[in-house]
Design brief:
Helices cover about 5% and strands about 40% of the residues. It is mainly beta. It has one domain: Metal Binding Protein, Guanine Nucleotide Exchange Factor, Chain A (Beta Complex), CATH 2.170.150. The structure holds zinc ion (2 copies).
Length: about 140
C-alpha cells in the first residue's frame, strides 16, 4: 500500500505543511467567500483527514470567514491555506495551488458555479455544480 504524501506552503515560506493520505473532494470553488479570501476568481481545494495535515514550519493564522468556517492563512504573506467547517470537524480542505507540485492532484469538479464570475469560462469538461457537489447545476 502506497502512502500519499504532499508538501506545500505559503508564498513567503513562513508556513510549511504536509499531508499524508488520499485527498478527496478535489474541486475548484467559485464561491464569493473563497474569492474574497484569496483575491482570486476561484480556489482549488482538496480534502484531507485533519489528523493527516501537519504544519511543519511556522504557524498558521486562522480567522472565521463565516459562522461555521475557519480559514487558515499565512500571517506574513496572506496566502490562503486551509478551510475548516465546524460540521466536518474531522476534515480539512487544503488549497491545491499551495502544494510544491501543484500539477497533481487535479480538481475533478467545479462547485458553487452559481457564484462564478461572468468572465470565467469553464471549458475543461469537468462536472459543474450550482452549489456544493451534491447539488447539480440546473
Ligand atoms: Zn507566507
Ligand atoms: Zn468556496
Amino acid at each position: 500500500m502506497s502512502t500519499l504524501n504532499y508538501v506545500g506552503g505559503c508564498q513567503c515560506g513562513s508556513v510549511r505543511f504536509e499531508t499524508v493520505g488520499e485527498l478527496t473532494n478535489l474541486c475548484v470553488c467559485h464561491c464569493s467567500d473563497c474569492r474574497r479570501s484569496a483575491g482570486a476568481p476561484m480556489v482549488a481545494w482538496g480534502t484531507v483527514a485533519r489528523k493527516e495535515f501537519r504544519v511543519t514550519h511556522g504557524r498558521m493564522a486562522e480567522y472565521r470567514s463565516s459562522a461555521k468556517v475557519t480559514r487558515g492563512f499565512c500571517a506574513s504573506c496572506g496566502t490562503s491555506l486551509t478551510y475548516a467547517h465546524d460540521e466536518r470537524a474531522h476534515e480539512l480542505d487544503v488549497t491545491l495551488a499551495s502544494f510544491d507540485a501543484p500539477e497533481v492532484p487535479a480538481p475533478q469538479a467545479h462547485v458553487w458555479v452559481q457564484n462564478k464570475l461572468p468572465w470565467v469560462v469553464i471549458s475543461d469538461g469537468r462536472p459543474q455544480f450550482a452549489r456544493g457537489s451534491n447539488e447539480p447545476a440546473s
